[in-house]
Design brief:
- Helix 2 runs antiparallel to helix 3.
- This protein has five helices and no strands.
- By secondary structure, it is an all-alpha fold.
- Bound molecules: magnesium ion.
Length: about 140
């Protein structure tokens, strides 16, 4: 077996285990659609379990044997995050974009007040109206379940 084929076989075998773990997760929890912060907490929880296994492996402990399984779980959760994004069901996704827009608008106003640019009164009114609208949309999105 060539070195390349050997590497491909290892990747294929690892992916099979990650997919099997994904199926276990789906059977246990069903389709999961979380906001980015919740996903980060779930992923970090799995990374923490990997870390615990690594420490047990390094210094001795009962979780040492679980190192590889925890790595598979980290990969499976990361895969779930990609799936959630691709389904278009990640809550607050729009809010993140809107927040970025709001920050940009506020910077624009700050630049104007620092006299970097000169807007006329109508342009300033339009910018302020856009900020107010973005604030309202963001507040509504944050209140949504
Ligand atoms: Mg785990």
């Amino acid at each position: 077996m060539s070195e390349g084929k050997c590497a491909a076989a290892i990747i294929e075998s690892a992916l099979e285990e990650v997919l099997a773990e994904r199926m276990r997760q789906n059977a246990k929890w069903g389709e999961q659609n979380h906001d980015p912060i919740t996903w980060l907490a779930i992923l970090t929880e799995e990374v923490g379990e990997f870390s615990e296994a690594a420490l047990h492996l390094r210094f001795g402990g009962p979780k040492a044997a679980g190192l590889r399984a925890e790595a598979v779980q980290v990969a499976a959760v990361a895969l779930q995050i990609v799936e959630c994004i691709d389904r278009g069901k990640m809550p607050f996704r729009r809010t993140v974009l809107e927040s970025a827009l709001l920050i940009s608008l506020k910077r624009l106003v700050a630049a104007e007040s620092a006299s970097k640019w000169k807007f006329d009164a109508e342009e300033i009114n339009e910018i302020e109206a856009a900020i107010e609208q973005a604030d309202t949309v963001i507040a509504r999105a944050e209140l949504a379940p």
